[in-house]
Amino acid sequence: MDRTIRIAIGSIVVGFAVLGLKAFAWWLTGSIALLSDALESTVNVATAIAALVAIRVAARPADANHPYGHHKAEFMSAVLEGVMIIIAALLIMNEAWKGFMAPRALDAPLEGLLVNGLASAINGIWCYVLISYGRRHRSPALVADGRHLLSDVVSSVGVTFGVLIAILTGWQKLDPALAGLVAINILWSGWKVITESLSGLLDEAVSDDMLKMIRETISDQATGALEVHDLRTRHAGKATFIDFHMVVPGTTTVDEAHEICDRIETALKKNIPQALITIHVEPENKAKHQGVLVL
């Protein structure tokens, strides 16, 4: 089984474990702030399942109906995660408003905070695993899942300190007020996940640093050609699409042009293993005298 899929399955297991702990913490205390934490964890489970499905779909090879592969499935998953995060935030806001209007004392607060702290620690460790692995292997679904968990960890820490202050001061309205702050933080997290995922769905170009590396690699490896123009890039999950026009002298044979293309593709795939490259060879009268000049 692919390691990425194993990690996605691990997210589901961790999500259920954390959800159980946070629900238990809420049951012990009756805290609306801890309830908000538990509600967010239900989204964690749902988005982890969505990420697993998206990763499995994205891993499918290209077929007749999807000649460019299924890479964008991960972006669709990340958008779904963002929407679900926002829905969770709205539910939390509703509970926070009810609690603010009718505040109540907390039951067994210290025990509940200890249980919630354990859940947050588990989330923090798994968040690091998801983000580091997702970035290393260019998996938008895992990175989105990890960032969601990161916002969960941050809000959980804030909730823990806030509930502790509410216990010490006896200010009961602080508990629902904290839940409202958690909801705002979650809304911001959901918005960021959606906007970053939409950039991939809209065929956003690679980063400036990667584009510079691509241009330098082409320039170094295209000996025998004259120039490269109309360079275009986009990314979709793990795949990076690169296409450009390469101008060669009119005396260049098909075999010679093909050898130049192979050399460029080999060098680019060494730096970008999941690169999908398309090169259109043109005669020298098609030169635009712009783009990438060959060294």
From TrEMBL:
One Pfam family here: Cation_efflux
Q: Does the keyword Lipoprotein apply?
A: no
Cation efflux protein transmembrane domain boundaries: 11-202
Q: Which InterPro entries match?
A: Cation_efflux, Cation_efflux_CTD, Cation_efflux_CTD_sf, Cation_efflux_TM, Cation_efflux_TMD_sf, CDF_Transporter
Can you say where in the cell this protein is located?
Cell membrane
Gene Ontology process terms (BP): intracellular zinc ion homeostasis
Q: Where are the transmembrane segments?
A: 7-29, 41-59, 75-93, 113-133, 153-171
- What superkingdom does the record give? Bacteria
Instruction: Give the protein name, as stated in the record.
Output: Protein p34
> Which organism is this protein's natural source?
Gellertiella hungarica
